[in-house]
Amino acid sequence: MKSYPPELKANVVKEHVEKGVSCSQLSKTYNIPIRNIQKWVKKFRDSGENYSCFFNGSFNKNSIVSRGSKIPPVVYENSGVDLDEISRLCMEYPELAQTLQSLKDLVIEKDIEIRVLREKVEFVKKNLNQRK
User: Fold this and answer.
1) Distance between alpha carbon 74 and the CA centroid of its chain, in Å?
2) Environment class of residue 110 by beta-carbon count within 10 Å: exposed (0-12), middle (13-18) or buried (19+)?
3) Integer Cα distance of 50 and 93 in angstroms
4) Where are the chain's structural domains?
5) Helix (H, G, I), strand (E, B) or coil at 55
6) Burial of 89 (0-12, 13-18, 19+ CB in 10 A)
């Protein structure tokens, strides 16, 4: 099953709710199954018509995946980021949502690089200690 970014879900629902674009037309425009769009609209309505429902995932402090995104939880905890404000801005400026997704992907990529380098350092240390 394909996963869609929360910014896209919110934008598609916004077009349906605020501009009156049919789910069928949105399905064709975005190449997303109509059933997915209908589920997103239902989720939006069930949330009291709050777009942030697409941005609130489960929160696990021990996981790199937090609040429905792939940003490490420490970033949110230490930066004072207002997720509701980010959600609002992403709705107003779709290009911001794309940039945000690119930055999220970059953070993940760099995190993986750091982990690999740490493992290499530990490996080298271990081999040096064995030679002594």
Assistant:
1) 15
2) exposed
3) 17
4) 6-131
5) coil
6) middle
CA angle, residues 42, 52, 64, in degrees to nearest 5: 110
Query: Can you tell me which residue has the tokens 């490996």?
Result: 123
Q: Which two three-digit tokens encode residue 46?
A: 């069930």
Q: What are 104's two structure tokens?
A: 């999220």
Distance CA 65, CA 95 (A): 23
61: DSSP letter: T
Contact between residue 9 and residue 40 where contact means Cβ atoms under 8 Å apart: yes
**Per-residue pLDDT reduced to its tens digit, 32-84:** 999 999 999 999 888 888 777 887 553 333 333 334 444 555 565 566 667 67
The token pair that represents 98 in the structure block: 């794309």
Amino acid at the residue 73: P
On the 0-12 / 13-18 / 19+ scale of CB atoms within 10 A, 111 is middle
User: Could you tell me the pTM of the whole model?
Assistant: 0.45
Q: Rounded CA gap, 58 and 69, in Å?
A: 9
